Automatic annotation (TrEMBL):
Name of this chain's protein: Receptor-type guanylate cyclase gcy
Region (Disordered), start-end ranges: 1-57, 1216-1238
CDD domains, alphabetized: CHD (cd07302)
SMART domains per the UniProt record, alphabetical: CYCc
Places the protein is found: Membrane
Domain Guanylate cyclase: 566-700
Pfam families, sorted: Guanylate_cyc (PF00211), PDEase_I (PF00233)
Length: 1238
């Protein structure tokens, strides 16, 4: 046999996309009807490609070598260039860092080492004191330097010192004379002079002498007696006998505390005592250890802190705080003469320097240089710190703290400065010797990380990386270009070498030869390009030439006659009506599942699929290659498709809803010659033409659901093949357009030998009982409820809402109240939460673990609700089964489900009453349309923003899974225990019930109470806890269900007026409509009164009520066949009520006019509201359009249909009376409620 492998390559070449349908590879046969190759597939003749492959390998090898060389050169060049760029840039940065660091360090060390030179001014002050003694001939210690305040201030300014103090050496025998000397007004006049001088400068305002006033010994003296302070800081007078000499503080600047510390014996201070010993013994100056106090101000109670703050304030002429950084004393000896060999030390002058002041104003203010400066001394002393750290940044110096705090990674950058020379030049010939051996001082300078980062940046690396990336991009562009070129060559070669096989399997030989006809150059023949180029030109001719005017011989039509073929048409019965009740995605789920299954069968049975149009499937056997037993192959294919149709619809019913499993196919076939060819249009494809195709289409359109109808020509071929047993002659002749009355046949037997009845009302498939169909309905509702519960649980977990493990989760109405009392004008919807939004959350919700026990409880709950429906009602009921118990293999609560359905079905008619399921499907559809409005993608930032817009757009419905569950539950229970009569009739028949409900919405409140009692049963407590998590959610669920279910009472005038008022308030058409009076006691919902949030709540409430109202009558806003089905069910129910004396008038007498009024006064206004509120997207238009179309159709055909209803009902009543009289059982409801179509 010739190949049967077909891939619609023509459409791919034409527009670059996949074709609208795909043909299939056929392998395998039935018995000996068709020959096949030994490996189970038909052979395919493909032109040899050995020579082409050899040429390709040689060329590829050379190109590959050159490619590798180019890539290696590019990589090598990139590495070298990047290394050079990085080295140069890094070297520049390092040099810049070194230069700036060296310059800044040099300035700091220079300033530090220059301190000793500045000390010469202090030394000069000591020389002046010696000169004063020598000139006046006054021996020490009885010497006072005149104009001391000016001399001291000048010395401080030149040296940068904070304070200077002269401490003369007073021997014990001079003690009394010293006391007289200090109290002589001539000698202590300097105190007033310096005090007046400090007043003029504003320095005295920084002092506070209260502390020292309280510690004076003799208060009426200008200078107190020589004294010292004990451990309690109390003054103790010196007696002049305890020491061999004394060291009182005499002249000093600045003068702290108005001179109250003058004449205090410094010898009692350990540091000054040691300093005096050193100076008296060695006659040299030296720098003392660090003096550090606690940070603070002048008012600090700590005396050291207060004194240091005063000294710094006096220096800067403004009050400043002491920051805790070190000062150091510099002690100078004062001699009695200038003779080096004979001079004696007669006094000690102490100068206090602030180290930080010598580090300021060194670097430029605009400098970004910041350095660590570590002060260090070798002084001995338990309380004196050895190291202190500053950060010098520009002109400022910042205190870091005691110790060495420089960053260890910069240890190698250390620069060291030492404290000056060995001689302080004081203006004398020899100066004053500075001894560093006692307490050596130095500084160490390091860069900071900030300074390093400012100069040593990632710039060289970034620049290098940029160049590297550029090279990488170039390399990858080269590789990508090479890849594209190679891919193009490979695709061209592969496509070209396969063109012969494609054309051979797609077209007959003569058509194939015409497509192949082309002049190929030797190169094209070597590479196999001629076939592909020719096929491409043929299939794309429409895009480049005008077919009507072209003179090219290649544009001649390509067609062929296939004399022996069987053409097959199939159509899904009831598909249009079924699809009108479902979402578009559900429709395509069904079609995709079916057609994929059919394509697989076609592949196995070597049937050529022509195309699919909507729900129609077209196939043919006998081409592209002839098949001897084409009719048998087609019949086997059709029967297997029919069985697959049943299997697929059964499996999809739980996801696509009730009624899916009842879909079947109507099929037809005819055998004869077929003209097939290539239509060279925008998308070239292979098509069939001829009378055989038309007749096959008539076989399908005049056939019966679930049956395969064939023509006489096909039947003749089957008889000739010995398959006469498959045929069943159709009793009546069939009228075919253009053919007149013709005889047709049903396929009565499958190739496997099972029977197929000629009754057009039954399917050719394993028949299922109504009981199993009921179980599928329960399963569908259970799956729907489970999915909603999973979303609720996932939402709580995602948003961190903790479940209450101890709540009873029971709610019962208070005594004396009914459901109507719970109705609110607006149900408060939850605020938007970002925690559970987005597609990933929807996917995660489907994977929430739910125990088998909870799922079984959901099924039991759905089953018990189903058992509450009145099975004798034709419209308001649930599906049940008449005979005995339902035959199912169930366990656990499913077995209980079966038992309840069986009990509920006793003495009932077997009518598939699916109103609750139909309403539920409509509710789900509308809710999903609420979730998917038309939002422009360019107005959405991200997934969270989209969720927020959907939340606002849907007034909070989108983001609340509890609302979705409440709507599904409400649609399931809204007609529980409905009696098939109006509320007025129920008030007559059930006066106690009517009184309990105050004659308001009796049926609806009764349904609510019964369903709520079921839900509140003890056995469902665990399920309630799992569903709701918290009792507040249970109460909100209750409120939603109450409002929604009671909204189905559309005949209560007061409720309708209230709804109209709310509609105007929520969706005002004018400003006047906003203000509407509401009944007293109801929650006000005006947007003016409540604001946007409350208005959103009332709109959400209205939308939910309109969803249930529209779904309750959804059949009127769906396909005409759906409308007629439920229209008849309602009529049967009301006619039964009339016959039972429960209705005053026969509905047949007003049914036509009543339906028109119902459309005009309720259905179309309701549909218009769905459209106008803008929440339901295109579904609002869909419902409105169907409502208008059904109304128009009813106005034209309604009278005729009602007449048919009346005739059928009269015949059924007569038959029922006769059967009752004969003692038999009545006809089942399936036959009595069969839909009548005019």
């Amino acid at each position: 046999m010739t190949p049967a492998t077909v891939e619609n390559e023509d459409a791919q070449i034409n527009d670059g996309s996949s074709s609208s349908y795909s043909s299939s590879r056929v392998s395998g046969n039935d018995n000996d009807d068709v020959e096949q190759s030994s490996n189970g597939e038909t052979s395919t003749s493909v032109p040899t490609t050995h020579h082409t492959n050899e040429i390709t390998r040689n060329e590829t090898r050379n190109v590959s070598r050159l490619r590798h060389v180019v890539i290696l050169m590019l990589i090598a060049k990139a590495v070298v260039v990047c290394w050079i760029v990085y080295a140069v840039q890094k070297s520049r940065e390092s040099a810049e860092f070194a230069n700036q660091y060296e310059a800044a360090t040099s300035k700091i060390i220079e300033s530090y080492e220059g301190i000793v030179h500045k000390m010469g001014a202090i030394g000069g002050l000591g020389v002046q004191l010696t000169s004063q003694s020598v000139e006046e001939g006054t021996p020490f210690p009885f010497v006072s330097l005149p104009h001391f305040h000016l001399r001291a201030q000048n010395a401080k300014d030149l040296s940068g010192a904070l304070a200077v103090t002269i401490n003369p050496v007073v021997h014990a025998h001079q003690f009394q004379k010293w006391d007289e000397f200090v109290n002589d007004p001539h000698n202590n006049a300097w105190i007033k002079e310096i005090s007046d001088y400090q007043d003029a400068l504003g320095i005295n305002q920084f002092g506070d002498d209260t502390y020292d006033q309280q510690r004076r010994i003799v208060s009426n003296r200008t200078v107190d007696v020589m004294r010292y302070f004990n451990a309690s800081s109390m003054p103790v007078p010196e007696d002049g006998l305890s020491e061999s000499y004394y060291l009182p503080q005499w002249q000093g600047s600045p003068l702290a505390h108005n001179g109250n510390r003058v004449n205090v014996n410094s010898l009692r201070q350990p540091q000054l005592r040691d300093a005096s010993f050193w100076i008296l013994q060695h006659k040299t100056a030296f720098v003392g250890s660090f003096l550090v106090g606690k940070p603070g101000t002048i008012s600090n109670p700590h005396p050291v802190t207060s004194l240091l703050a005063f000294l710094m304030s006096a220096k800067q002429m403004k009050e400043v705080s002491y920051e805790g950084d070190p000062l150091s004393p510099v002690h100078f000896p004062i001699f009695d003469s200038f003779q080096m060999s004979s001079r004696r030390v007669v006094a000690m002058m102490s100068v206090y320097i602030h180290w930080a002041s010598y580090l300021q104003n060194i670097l430029p203010s605009i400098s970004n240089c910041s350095l660590y400066v570590v002060l260090e001394n070798s002084c001995q002393g338990p309380a004196s710190p050895r190291q202190f750290t500053y950060i010098v940044q520009g002109e400022e110096t910042h205190v870091v703290g005691i110790g060495d705090h420089h960053e260890s990674q910069f240890e190698s950058h250390k620069r060291v400065g030492y404290f000056g020379s060995e001689v302080v030049k004081d203006g004398t010939l020899h100066g004053v010797f500075l001894n560093n051996s006692l307490c050596d001082h130095q500084i160490r300078v390091y860069p900071t990380q900030e300074f390093y980062n400012d100069l040593i940046t990632s710039g060289p690396l970034n620049f290098t990386l940029a160049i590297a990336v550029l090279y990488i991009v170039v390399i990858f562009m080269f590789l990508f270009y090479d890849f594209l070129v190679e891919k193009r060559q490979r695709i061209v070669l592969d496509k070209a070498t396969k063109s012969t096989a494609i054309v051979s399997s797609l077209f007959p030989k003569k058509v194939r030869d015409q497509l192949m006809e082309a002049e190929n150059t030797s190169k094209d023949q070597h590479l196999g390009l001629g076939i592909k180029n020719r096929l491409t030109n043929i299939l794309k001719r429409d895009a480049t030439h005008d077919l009507n005017t072209s003179k090219d011989s290649h544009d001649e039509p390509i067609a062929e006659l296939f004399p022996e073929c069987t053409v097959f048409f199939a159509d899904i019965v009831g598909f249009t009506a079924w699809s009108s009740a479902r979402e578009p995605c559900q429709v395509f789920v069904l079609l995709q599942a079916l057609y994929q299954a059919f394509d697989e069968i076609a592949r196995r049975r070597r049937v050529f699929k022509v195309e699919t149009i909507g729900d129609s499937y077209v196939a043919v056997t006998g081409l592209p290659e002839p098949q001897k037993y084409h009719a048998i192959v087609m019949i086997r294919f059709a029967m297997e498709c029919l069985e697959q149709m049943h299997s697929v619809t059964q499996n999809l019913e739980c996801s696509l809803g009730p009624g899916t499993s009842k879909l079947t196919m109507r099929m037809g076939a005819h055998s004869g010659p077929v003209t097939a060819g290539v239509i060279k249009a925008e998308r070239a494809r292979f098509q069939l033409f001829g009378d055989t195709v038309n007749t096959a289409s008539r076989m399908e359109s005049t056939g019966c659901p679930g049956r395969m109808q064939v023509s006489e020509a096909t039947a003749t071929l089957l008889r000739a093949a010995g398959k006469e047993g498959w045929l069943e002659r159709r009793p009546e002749l069939v009228y075919a357009k253009g053919k007149g009355q013709i005889q047709t046949y049903f396929v009565a037997t499958t190739p496997q030998g099972s029977s197929c009845s000629s009754d057009c009302s039954k399917l050719h498939c394993p028949q299922t009982t109504l009981g199993s169909e009921n179980v599928r309905l329960i399963n569908w509702i259970s799956e729907l409820l489970v999915a909603n519960i999973q979303r609720m649980v996932h939402h709580r977990r995602k948003c961190g809402i903790k479940d209450d493990p101890h709540g009873d989760f029971i709610y019962q109405l208070p005594s004396g109240r009914n459901c109507m009392d719970e109705v609110l004008e607006a149900i408060e919807m939850p605020t938007f939460k970002h925690c559970a939004v987005g597609r990933e959350c929807a996917t995660e919700a489907a994977h929430v673990e739910m125990t088998a026990e909870h799922k079984e409880l959901v099924k039991a709950l759905a089953a018990e609700i189903a058992s509450l429906y009145e099975a004798t009602n034709s419209f308001h009921n649930f599906e049940v089964k008449k005979e005995g118990t339902l035959k199912c293999t169930l366990v656990g609560s499913l077995a209980e489900l079966t038992r309840m359905l069986s009990i509920a079905s006793v003495n009932s008619r077997a009518q598939p009453l699916q109103h609750a399921c139909h309403v539920t499907m409509s509710v789900v559809k509308l809710l999903n349309r609420v979730n998917a409005p038309d939002i422009s993608p360019d107005k959405v930032k991200d997934q969270a923003d989209l969720a927020l817009q959907l939340h606002d757009y849907t007034h909070g419905i989108y983001s609340d899974p509890l609302t979705h569950f409440a709507m599904a539950w409400s649609s399931l229970i809204h007609d529980v225990n409905h009696r098939g009569v109006s509320n007025g009739q129920m008030a007559i028949e059930e006066p106690a019930m009517a009184g309990r409900y105050n004659h308001k919405s009796i049926a609806e409140q009764n349904s609510l109470d019964l369903a709520w009692q079921v839900l509140m049963q003890i056995r469902f407590r665990g399920l309630r806890r799992y569903m709701f998590g918290t009792e507040s959610e249970l109460l909100r669920f209750r409120q939603l269900v109450v409002n929604v279910v009671l909204a189905t009472d559309i005949f209560d005038r007061e409720l309708n007026d209230l709804r109209q008022a709310r509609w105007k308030k929520a969706f005002p058409s004018s400003v006047e409509d906003i203000v509407v009076d509401l009944p007293e006691g109801r929650r006000a919902v005006s947007s003016i009164m409540m604001g946007s949030i409350r208005t959103s709540d009332v709109r959400a409430t209205i939308v939910l009520e309109h969803i249930i109202q529209a779904s309750d009558v959804a059949h009127t806003m769906q396909h005409w066949h759906v409308y007629q089905k439920w229209n008849r069910k309602l009529l049967v129910e009301m006619h039964a009520a009339y016959k039972a004396g429960r209705m005053e008038r026969d509905p047949l007498s007003f049914w036509y006019e009543g339906e028109l009024g119902f459309f005009d006064n309720y259905i179309i206004p309701l549909a218009k509201k769905l459209k106008e509120c803008g929440v339901f997207g295109v579904s609002g238009d869909e419902y409105y359009n169907y409502a208008v179309e059904n109304r128009d159709e009813w106005s034209l055909r309604g009278k005729e249909i009602v007449a048919g209803f009346k005739k059928q009902l009269m015949e059924q009543d007569q038959a029922a009376a006769a059967t009752k009289g004969g003692g038999g059982t009545g006809d089942d409801e399936e036959s009595t409620s069969k839909t009548y179509f005019a």
